Every structure is written in C-alpha cells, then in structure tokens.
Amino acid sequence: MTRRWSIARQLFALQALVVTLLVAVCTIGAVLLARRDARNAAIGEVTAVAETIAHTPAVIGALGAADPTRVLQPYAETTRLATGTDFIVVMAPDRTRYTHPSPDLIGRPFAGTVAGALAGGTVVEEYHGSLGDSWRAVVPIRAQTGTIVGLVAVGITTAAINRALMAQFPAVAAGTGAALLLAAAGSGLLSRRLRRQTHGLGPAEMTRMYEYYDAVLHAVREGLVVVGRDGRVELINDEARRLLGAPAAGPADLPAEVAGLIAERHPMVDEPVLAGERILVVSRRETRFEGRTLGTVLTLRDHTELRQLTGELDSVRGLTEALRAQAHEAANRLHTVLTLVELGQPEEAVRLGTEELALAQQLTDQVVGAVREPALAALLLGKSAQAGERGIELTVDPASHLDGSALPSRDLLTVAGNLIDNALEAVTAGPAPRRVRVLVRQDGDEVLVQVSDTGPGLTADQAAAAFRRGWSTKPGPGRGVGLSLVRQVAERYGGSYRIDQATGHGAVLTVRLPVPA
C-alpha cells in the first residue's frame, strides 16, 4: 500500500507551487513594466532628437537651398549614428524625403502621419514603415517668420527596443532564480521543521491518532492533568474534573494543594493530598521530548473512602492489638492471682485482680462518656493501648467533651489520629516520664483538638515548617504527610493550627475547626 504524503510534504508541495506561480507572475509583471519603460524611453529620445534637429539653424537654412539633400543627408546620418536612432528623415511639407538611411528612398514620399505636425504639433506613433515597425516622432521645422518649411521624423524600430529589453533579461532571470532558490530553501526548512514536529504523519494518521487519544483520555478511570511549563493547565480529562470539582467544560483551576505539587522538581509517587472533600493520591512526573521539558503530568486517584476505611481499620487493629496485649497481661495476672490463693493470701489476690480492671474501666468510661463519636472514641482507646505497649502514658483530658454530630468522622480521625501519632513518635525516644495528653472539646461553634507531649519540642523555625508537606524531624521516605493532612483539613474548614512550647519541655499542637452551619 502506498503511503500517503505527510503534512510536511504536502505543505512543501503547496508552498513550492504557490511560490513558483507568484514568482512567475512577478516576473511577467517586471517584463511588462520594463517593456513599457523601454518604449517610453524610446519615445522620449526620438522626440528630443526631432525637436533638436527642428531648431537647428543649419537645417532650417538648408531647406531653402536648391539641393537640400546634399547638406541634410550627411548631417542626418551623423546625428542618427550619434544618437543611436534607426532613422532621421527630413522632408518637405508635401512629404518629399530629403534624407533617409536608405538613399534610394530619398525623393519619395514619407510613409506615416504628418497632419498633426503640419498643424504645428508633434506626432508620436507606432507605424509600420519601410524599416518595419517603429516608434517615431514627427516635428515641424519653422522658419524665423514662423512658417512651417519642413518636417523632421526620428524613429527607433521595435526590434531595437526589444533588443534593449533583452539586454536586461539576464538580470531579471538572475533575480527570478534567486527568488525561487530562496523560496525553495525557506519552504524546505519549514517543511523539515513541520516534519519533525508532526513526526512525518499524514492528515489521516493525525486525525486517527487524535480520535484514539481523545477516546482513551476520557475513558481511563484515573484523573489526568497535563500542566505546561508556564503552570497553566493544558489538558484535563473527565475524571480529573470530577475529582477536583472543576466545571465540565472550559478552563480548570487546580486546588492550592495540587497546584503546590507543580513546583516540585523530583518525581512523586502516590502522595496523599487533601483536595476539597476528597483525599487524592497524586503521582507527578515531568514529560520530556528530545531533552526539552514539555510540562508536568499529574495522575489522580480517589482514596477518600479507602482512607476513611483504612483509618477506621487502623483504629480497630490498634484496639485489637491492645486487647491481645491486655489478654496476655490478664493471663499473667490470673496465674499470679491463682498462685496467691494457693499460697493462702486471698486478700492480696483480690487486690491485684481488681486494681488493673478498675484502671482500664475508668479510662474506657472516661473516653466513652466524653466523646460520643464512636470512631474517635475507638481511636483514643486504641492509641492509649498502643502508647501503653510502648511505655508511654496517654491520657484524655477530663475537660474533653464532643457531640457525635459535630464534624464528619473522617476529618476528626485525620486530625486527632495524626496529632497523636506525631506526639507518640516525639516522646518514644525521649527520657521518662513519657506522657501524651489529648483534649477534644466542642466550644460553641468550633471543635478544639489539642495534643501535648513531653518530647524534645520544636524550635521556632521547626514549628513554622512542621505543617508543610514533606517536612519531618526524622529522615526516610513517606514522612512529613500526617501534619500536612491536618493542615489541609483545618484550611478547608477555615480553621487554625499552631504549635506552642509546652511548660517545661515538649510541644502543644492545637487545631481549631469551625462547625459548619
């Protein structure tokens, strides 16, 4: 099958045709203008020569002699050769020639129009005479009294004019050739550039590629955003518009959280970002072609429900692990109680058996009574058990109180869970006593979540950067995400977040979330 011409080749052929026609038209126009100019120059020349001869006294005097030809013929020929004209004819008013380049025509009547000259004017015409086609001027010769005593006709043949015109042909041909070469070179360079940009594809192939590309772009279930080097959104598919809450048509603006990823220089894989009501997993990569950076490609996946389920699952898993550890400890205590009974110390056995139970029940009653949000209550109990396993004392401030309908569970879990995890990590490697204190309270139209710890605390610069995505006091991939999610939740609600230095040592992280009307 013969491959169809590419767009570059078609454009080159079209440009070559158009340029050739344009140059041809311009050349013809130049030739016509040159021909007109040559004719006008010839007319001006013969007219000037004729008028000069008509005012020459020797010519006027010779016309009154018995044999005017004897004086005028040599003069006319000398003048003709000197001026480059083809004939100079001096004649009587009755057309009788006194001079002519062909001596055998002397004495014969002049062929041409002389009526205007006999009337005192100048006759300029193209006429087919004895020497062929020529342009001639006929001027009256006047005596001193003003009487017309003769006529003088000066002419240049058309062939001579054409020879003069053909003498200019090499210059015209050189100009035409140079124009064609320049146009061909320009068309070739443009065709080459276009071929490189279109990869040699033809119109049908490009149309088919666009149709496939458009169909695939809108069929994929991942959000896809292509951002140019200037930061503007060049392409966005339907799924990305849905995830970002952008209009179904027209330009799309990226949320501040997603737009902040564009400035990153390193590749990014599966970074969680809170955009509006959704938790998106974003991957970022720069696109390059032949060493040039074309822009940035972002792929978006919706992990809102998965993140919510994961948070609840983590809480349940933490609570399960805590119950498993407590069951192990309960088994140890049970063996101890049985041994004490066997040793005859029932009072000590009763005291040991009820002491830990009372403490656990007290914590459960405190959390459940203060926090009516089941998921958050389970999170606090699970984190308390985890802290106990790591030798950390996690307490819930007695002033805690939260109605279950204040805020969505996923946002409360995101804020409280990440703040507590950050505090647990801060005190894990520190000296005893290692304590974390949690306060969750609804004050009127806002919810306060405050977590304090006895860790090393943060400097002013560290506190200012702690809520920025990717910042962490501990090295390693995947860190610096928790507090950035807390910041995004707080900003989405129009709330506030801050870090203060605790009394003595440690840090106090405070987040205030307004309750939507």
Automatic annotation (TrEMBL):
<feature type="transmembrane region" description="Helical">
    <location>
        <begin position="171"/>
        <end position="190"/>
    </location>
</feature>
<dbReference type="InterPro" id="IPR029151">
    <property type="entry name" value="Sensor-like_sf"/>
</dbReference>
<dbReference type="GO" id="GO:0005524">
    <property type="term" value="F:ATP binding"/>
</dbReference>
<keyword id="KW-0547">Nucleotide-binding</keyword>
<keyword id="KW-0472">Membrane</keyword>
<keyword id="KW-0902">Two-component regulatory system</keyword>
<dbReference type="InterPro" id="IPR003594">
    <property type="entry name" value="HATPase_dom"/>
</dbReference>
<protein>
    <recommendedName>
        <fullName>histidine kinase</fullName>
        <ecNumber>2.7.13.3</ecNumber>
    </recommendedName>
</protein>
<dbReference type="InterPro" id="IPR036890">
    <property type="entry name" value="HATPase_C_sf"/>
</dbReference>
<keyword id="KW-0067">ATP-binding</keyword>
<feature type="transmembrane region" description="Helical">
    <location>
        <begin position="146"/>
        <end position="165"/>
    </location>
</feature>
<dbReference type="Pfam" id="PF17203">
    <property type="entry name" value="sCache_3_2"/>
</dbReference>
<dbReference type="InterPro" id="IPR005467">
    <property type="entry name" value="His_kinase_dom"/>
</dbReference>
<keyword id="KW-0418">Kinase</keyword>
<dbReference type="InterPro" id="IPR035965">
    <property type="entry name" value="PAS-like_dom_sf"/>
</dbReference>
<keyword id="KW-0597">Phosphoprotein</keyword>
<keyword id="KW-0812">Transmembrane</keyword>
<dbReference type="InterPro" id="IPR033463">
    <property type="entry name" value="sCache_3"/>
</dbReference>
<keyword id="KW-1003">Cell membrane</keyword>
<keyword id="KW-0808">Transferase</keyword>
<feature type="domain" description="Histidine kinase">
    <location>
        <begin position="304"/>
        <end position="517"/>
    </location>
</feature>
<dbReference type="InterPro" id="IPR004358">
    <property type="entry name" value="Sig_transdc_His_kin-like_C"/>
</dbReference>
<dbReference type="GO" id="GO:0000155">
    <property type="term" value="F:phosphorelay sensor kinase activity"/>
</dbReference>
<dbReference type="Pfam" id="PF02518">
    <property type="entry name" value="HATPase_c"/>
</dbReference>
<dbReference type="GO" id="GO:0005886">
    <property type="term" value="C:plasma membrane"/>
</dbReference>
<keyword id="KW-1133">Transmembrane helix</keyword>
<feature type="transmembrane region" description="Helical">
    <location>
        <begin position="12"/>
        <end position="34"/>
    </location>
</feature>
